[in-house]
């Protein structure tokens, strides 16, 4: 399984945004939609071996975490375009309104779960995985020998991770880098997915 | 300069589509928007050394080609999200209605040009570049030594290139591949951009 853990610092935690203007009204859920496209979509095919956690930390009711479980998702539900994916996110956030228990996950659609987990909760849940933190200045990806399974990659959004996040992840996740520039979250996921295909990781 | 040449087999050639449903009404201009995002956007920065040609071949008035000229585009005009980019494309297609001369380019916005060029016209215009055709089964990208400049990459959309296209490109463009699966156009562009950064191509 390939896991991507994304911290969305400003992404709205209820479906209070306009699908006509995701960048301006949703706390950059457009970016999350592209990240999900990059994580799951192949040409005329779907990556069943991928799991994505996105933690939403914007207004009005943070935190919310949506888990996208590749083996269970019906590919037709998660289309490649931003608006379709934003609608799925919106639907999940609506269901999330009524959750009280901080660790309970509710299945909104097959393979799509919402909860009140924090970013730290998500990382702790994955602490037995081989955890990598995508960070400028990390060890170059070509210098790593990846295990065949249980890989989890942690990424920030346009605002990145805070000092507190980095301090929390110290010693838990290995800092790695994919290239000499600062890349968009979705581009990093595309590159990592294709890189892992190239080196024969299932 | 890095050039990406994209053939969009069904993309509409007038602004007759709905921004609310790009996949269903535009001949997959959503895919083109993500390809442009992948070509130009970095985290908080813009790739000024990139040029993209997209040839639109869908109804009602094919062909139309839009050229996006990185050095001249104002980054604020080409936002990362699909809807913003689709609006720019729509604006260009509107201007394209009145072009009669098949080789004339009209500048719609700084660095954004529309013409009636065909896909073959675009390839011929770039024939002095080092031309690469992204194709499953092509030579693996790691087996190439890229020249430092004048690289042009040809890509299809969800429908790919036709037998006629491949026959036309035979001997003009070298077939290359980025990995063992069939990837989305935007993911290929992300990968190629980052790969070129990694091997030190400006």
Automatic annotation (TrEMBL), chains A, B:
Signal peptide: none
Top-tier EC class: transferase
Catalytic reaction annotation: pseudouridine(54) in tRNA + S-adenosyl-L-methionine = N(1)-methylpseudouridine(54) in tRNA + S-adenosyl-L-homocysteine + H(+)
E.C. number: 2.1.1.257
InterPro entries assigned: Alpha/beta_knot_MTases (IPR029028), TrmY (IPR007158), tRNA_m1G_MTases_N (IPR029026)
Subcellular location per the Swiss-Prot or TrEMBL entry: Cytoplasm
Residues holding S-adenosyl-L-methionine: 134, 156
Domain of life: Archaea
Keywords, comma-separated and alphabetical: Cytoplasm, Methyltransferase, S-adenosyl-L-methionine, Transferase, tRNA processing
Main location: cytoplasm
Subunit organization: Homodimer.
Matches recorded under HAMAP family: tRNA_methyltr_TrmY (MF_00587)
Summary of the function given for this chain in its UniProt record: Specifically catalyzes the N1-methylation of pseudouridine at position 54 (Psi54) in tRNAs.
Similarity comment text for this entry: Belongs to the methyltransferase superfamily. TrmY family.
Protein name per UniProt: tRNA (pseudouridine(54)-N(1))-methyltransferase
The species this protein was found in: Pyrococcus kukulkanii
Encoding gene (name): trmY
């Amino acid at each position: 399984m390939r896991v991507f853990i994304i911290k969305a610092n400003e992404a709205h935690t209820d479906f209070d945004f306009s699908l006509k203007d995701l960048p301006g009204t949703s706390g950059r859920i457009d970016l999350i939609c592209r990240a999900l496209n990059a994580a799951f979509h192949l040409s005329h095919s779907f990556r069943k071996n991928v799991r994505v956690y996105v933690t939403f930390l914007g207004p009005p009711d943070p935190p919310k975490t949506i888990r996208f479980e590749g083996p269970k998702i019906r590919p037709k539900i998660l289309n490649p375009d931003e608006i379709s994916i934003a609608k799925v996110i919106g639907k999940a956030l609506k269901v999330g309104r009524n959750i009280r228990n901080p660790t309970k996950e509710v299945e909104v659609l097959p393979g799509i779960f919402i909860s009140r987990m924090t970013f730290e909760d998500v990382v702790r849940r994955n602490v037995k995985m081989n955890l990598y933190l995508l960070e400028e200045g990390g060890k170059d990806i070509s210098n790593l020998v990846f295990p065949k399974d249980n890989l989890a990659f942690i990424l920030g959004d346009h605002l990145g991770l805070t000092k507190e996040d980095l301090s929390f992840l110290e010693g838990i996740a290995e800092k790695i880098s994919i290239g000499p520039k600062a890349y968009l979250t979705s581009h990093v996921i595309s590159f990592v997915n294709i890189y892992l295909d190239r080196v024969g990781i299932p």
